[in-house]
Amino acid sequence: MPPASLPLAAGAVVVSRAPLARPGKVWNSQGMVRLDDIGLRYGRGPEVLHGISFSLPEGSFHWLTGPSGAGKTSLIRLLSLTERPSRGTISLFGRNPDGVGRNARQALRRQIGVVYQDFRLLGHLTAFDNVALPLRLAGEREAAIAANTAELLAWVGLAERMAARPVTLSGGEQQRLAIARAVVAGPRLIVADEPTGDLDERQAERLLGLLVSLHRNGTTLLVATHNERLIERFPAPRLALSHGRLVAQDG
Ligand SMILES: Nc1ncnc2c1ncn2[C@@H]1O[C@H](COP(=O)(O)OP(=O)(O)OP(=O)(O)O)[C@@H](O)[C@H]1O
Ligand SMILES: [Mg+2]
């Protein structure tokens, strides 16, 4: 069983030290994330998500599944505020990110940890600085940043590569770096897009264990994957997409 017993005191410690203390219950715990009849089209192209409605209770863990092209990444782009819906409404932490100003939208964004399918690491920064960035944006003190970042990088097996630029890392190393960056600031919501696609089975379980341990500590978690073995290993309700529609939501 990975985390709980592992040095991942790291994850827990990082979370508990994080500056974004969770406020009292000001949102509806039945719908920390709520989508209501959402549609998405890219530019003038065809609609790729159609009439999507669901809610994720605070602290829940769901898998997001569906064949290639079903719309998993598109849905994650909406939840990570990378894209805006073409129709329908989203509620995150009780607020509509499309109905607030730029600063408020950025503040919402900083409460979401995202693992992008294509990593989106910053090429001009070292591995250390990529992971430290969310803590710097949150205004953490440098000493705390150094301790948390080093601890987490060591946990994901990158202690020796802290000074490396992302381009010099392997695919799996980049993926572990992307996961570390997503979790380091203790976000309230983590959305992860195929976060273990470049990892071997053992590493995939270990890293998924990290995400699940954060969920057990209260973080809301949504993970897109094709890996049925991982789903078996970490059972959780699933949102299933097919051709841009939600075809199943158990739990
Ligand atoms: N930036 C984009 N511009 C236009 N169309 C896009 C864009 N990104 C995705 N699409 C289209 O949206 C649909 C859903 O794609 P999406 O990437 O969300 O699928 P996915 O479920 O994540 O697939 P995969 O498992 O291969 O990652 C596809 O038809 C795709 O061609
Ligand atoms: Mg995808």
Strand and helix map with partners:
Blueprint: H1 9-17, E1 33-41, E2 47-56, E3 61-65, H2 72-79, E4 87-92, H3 102-109, E5 112-115, H4 127-137, H5 142-155, H6 171-183, E6 189-193, H7 201-216, E7 220-224, H8 228-233, E8 238-242, E9 245-249
Parallel strand pairs: 3-7, 3-8, 5-6, 6-7
Antiparallel strand pairs: 1-2, 1-4, 8-9
Helix pairs in contact: 1-5, 4-5, 4-6
Magnesium ion (MG) binds at residues 72-73, 117, 193.
Description:
The chain has 251 residues and is α/β, with parallel strands linked by helices. It has a domain of 173 residues: P-loop containing nucleotide triphosphate hydrolases (Rossmann fold), CATH 3.40.50.300. The chain has 8 helices and 9 strands. The strands form 2 sheets. Strands 5-6-7-3-8-9 form a 6-stranded mixed beta sheet, with helices on both faces. A 3-stranded antiparallel beta sheet has the order 2-1-4, covered by helices on one side. α1 packs antiparallel against α5, α4 crosses α5 and α4 runs parallel beside α6. The radius of gyration is 17 Å and the shape is globular. The two termini are 24 Å apart.
